[in-house]
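Continuing from the previous page...

OK, I double-checked the sequence for CinA family protein against my notes and this is the correct one:
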Amino acid sequence: MTDLHDSLLPAELTDLARRVIVENAAAGRRVSVAESCTGGLVSAALTEIAGSSDVFDRGFVTYSNEAKQELLGVSPDIIDTFGAVSIACVWAMAQGALKHSLADVSVAISGIAGPGGGSREKPVGTVVFARAIRGEDDSNSEEKHFEPGTRAQVRLQAALVALELLLP
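Thanks. Re-ran it with the corrected sequence; updated structure tokens here:
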């Protein structure tokens, strides 16, 4: 396993990533992620763990709306109607991550990390998540409102929630 002192990532992130790898390995599941506002932070945390290649299939960093559409198959109508920071969008992202991977479970994240870009309806710190499991119609999706501290703080909190969603 990775020595936490050698990691550039916060210990709480690598500790949770280790649990995701160990528990999904025990469950025989492979995982994928579709990230927007976290920009690859969840993927980085997972690949920080030795043995992650047995569990982590792939990560999609789809920061732009075009990337969400091209790489994950998110409909432009979803983005036009609900926005990129919406349950509908992350649900489509999570489904796209499953479709374009060998994973059994995927998680998608999109949000407004700040310091700008927020609105009255979707203030800075708004992050939405969805988990999809291959072969199941049910999903786990949620919207969180993190304190709009620094951009790094919002991204870290979002990555932690995403990793929790990947636990069996």
